[in-house]
Amino acid sequence: MIKNDVIGEKTAEERRITLLLGSVIFPFLAITIAVLLGGLLGGLDVSTVVFIAGVILLVLVLALRQYGLAVALIIIAHIYIDWYLGLEIVVTAMAVGLFFLLCLIRSPEYPWVAPRSLWLWGLLLIIGIPPAIRGAQSHYDLAFSYPNIFLGALLMYWLGMLVASNRVHLRTFFQILSLLGALLAIHTIIQNATGTVLFGSERIDAYLAQVSYYDLTSYGIPRPGSFLHNPDWNGTFFAMMLFLPIGLFAEATSFVQKILCIIEMLLMSIALLLTYSIGAWIAALAGIIVFIFIMKRGRYLIRLILLPALLMINGLIIMIAFPAQLNLQFQHISNPKEVSLRVGAWQTAINIIHAFPLTGIGLGLTNYLQRADPYRVPAQYLPLAHPHNSYLELGAMAGLPVLIVFLALLLLALWQSWRNWRKVDAGIRYLLGGGIAAIIALSVNSMSINAWTLAPLAAIGWVILGAMSSPLLADKSSG
């Protein structure tokens, strides 16, 4: 029996190493093929080459049955193809295809599992239809709202449960997501240093020029948004993703793994600083407090002793390397116009909820921009397409019943993740603690920006929640 357990652990570790190597080798092969194809066809721009590379890469990954990596690729496509390039619902179709594929190929490695709260998800999908139709004043609104905020949330949550079928898969999945966060951090740092968006689009460059690259107008400092356009959304991404390498660092036993996690944390912290997003920094602080509070409930502080020291070193490096950015950050916090506009946006949304408590005014950014104006308070001195608060956005656009069901699903998923944390052993608790802290950071940041209602950010949040709340994680026999 002991020999079989050792062989099983060795096989699982070999699969994990193979998947991690694949996450580096497969993209290289795909991009090479796409570049060669672009050279043969001629006239292909960078974004088209990246799109072709993504398709080739997804085919390779699915052929090798690396479904965790496939979900990570869907998240990448959500950020780049649907959001950055503006193709809107391509990723929803990909997620549906992968979901049905996992339904068909049920195996001991990827067993079938369904959300315990499936009826509540069904209720959300039903009551979300009227506000989506009522608020759709354009093709973009119709394609963006319902498929991403409601249907996409269920798909990503369920996919997370299916691919995190055991502890090895969860660890590997978080490692891949951490690598994604580090790569986008490098992309953000390069954009800040050069003013160039790698793998960019002329359409997005023109849009960024219209909004003055989201600069701090009082200081003329550009704020990099990377593939998420807006630096506030980019900051939210790093505030959330930062906790995956923190959990991996606390869980890792290898010195090399710890060094990699430290590098990822440092890159994401620098990228977070460069976005000048105050809400994201507050969210990251909330996540750190929650992570330490969760882990102190067990006998895990011995390994966490290094974490405060690591965070202090990380902060010192940033203070020494980026003193001007820190100074501007503090000045940005104290800008009364920024605070007034944000509070005014919330008051406007509250006025709309008072006027339309059950139905809202309809889901859609264009619709909100037009119909919210009669309820706008003087403090909101500019018309806005959303109230800069995901919860108020759902209440104002879709009505309080939709908001209540959404919050119930979010809290239930967090509760299931917490139950798994209590049932699993010490090693996996660090990963779950990091994931829970990431969701707390996203939820806190959603009070100052539309994070839970922005397709790429919400997709990452729901897939992390799904991976953590899978009942298979608490099964001791699941590896």
Describe the protein.
This protein is mostly helical. The chain has one domain. The protein has 22 helices and no strands. The two termini are 15 Å apart.
Give the SSE order as H and E letters: HHHHHHHHHHHHHHHHHHHHHH
Structural class: mainly alpha
Shape designation? globular
How many structural domains are formed by the residues?
1
Q: How big a fraction of the residues is strand?
A: under 5%
| Radius of gyration using CA atoms only | 22 Å
How would you sum up the major sheet? none
Give the structure's gist in a few sentences:
With 479 residues, the chain is mainly α.
Layout of helices and strands:
Elements: H1 2-41, H2 46-63, H3 67-84, H4 90-104, H5 118-127, H6 129-135, H7 139-163, H8 167-194, H9 202-210, H10 231-241, H11 243-251, H12 255-274, H13 278-296, H14 301-304, H15 306-321, H16 323-333, H17 336-355, H18 365-371, H19 390-398, H20 400-423, H21 426-445, H22 455-469
Helix pairs in contact: 1-2, 1-8, 2-3, 3-4, 3-8, 3-22, 4-7, 5-20, 6-7, 7-22, 8-12, 10-12, 10-13, 10-21, 11-12, 11-21, 12-15, 13-21, 17-19, 19-20, 20-21, 20-22, 21-22
